[in-house]
Amino acid sequence: MSKQLLKLFPLSTQQHPLQGLYLTHRLNTLGSTTAPFVYANFLSSLDGRIALKDSVQNQPSYIPKQLTTASDFRLFMELHAQADCLITHGGYMRALSEKRLGNILQVKNEELVEWRCNNGLKPQPAVVIASANLDFPIPPSLRENHQDCFIATGKNADVERIRYWQDQGYRILFSGEEQMVQGAALIQQLKKLEYKSIYLIAGPKMLGTMIREKQLSRIYLTVTHQFIGGLDFHTLWSGPALTEETKLRLKSLYYEQSSPSGSGQFFMYFDVQQTLQT
After folding, report:
1. Domain map of the chain by residue range?
2. Which of 40, 150, 164, 172 could share a disulfide with 200, CB 3.0–4.6 Å?
3. Under CATH, what is the fold of the domain 4-253+268-272?
4. Which three-class secondary structure state does DSSP give residue 39?
């Protein structure tokens, strides 16, 4: 039996099952080839930590285990299941190769794979790897699952690395004037490939460029009711101040009391009001 969530907004006294909650949003139907629906999902503590890092020991960033729950992961995969294209980054590929993070590049739940096929999507989404330095490995699971894979980088990226990936058979999407990938340029490239529902699993830098360049349609957020602390940490936004405000409109808010144990968490999502996808 699926866990039950209390719906807090829009105001309701009813409980709703966790399983299938985000599938009802039908994100795969909200975009088009001229205006893709671009969405992101983050997990945060109440004090705004999405990951911790140890700059003194020069250790890689990591997600504290107390933040993660089976409920959040289920909803993460429901969002994953509705995408025809995922955007990730080279840092994740390196972490995956070093076994610091698990593989989230495939929909592994048979029920969700069936849902994709029944709703006009391929069994697995395409994957775009954004990278400035083009230094990362590609996991064999992408070829094993017959996923289209593209590499996005800037026009001034290293020529030898570009040639290396082209020789390996990967298409390069030039999506920035320098080395860094820019949000609007990347979405323009994905329009040409006719992707309609694009899921960001690429961290705060990619979120930042999508917001600054008005490409983000929606953000999902899980907030666990606990403090994590830490002197060195990642949060949702760490870039320069925005030149104009980004307005978000809360669309739904659910409360799960039983997880994480002893605290609880909110599941919510916001639509971005000033999104201009041209």
Report:
1. 4-253+268-272
2. 40
3. Dihydrofolate Reductase, subunit A (3.40.430)
4. strand
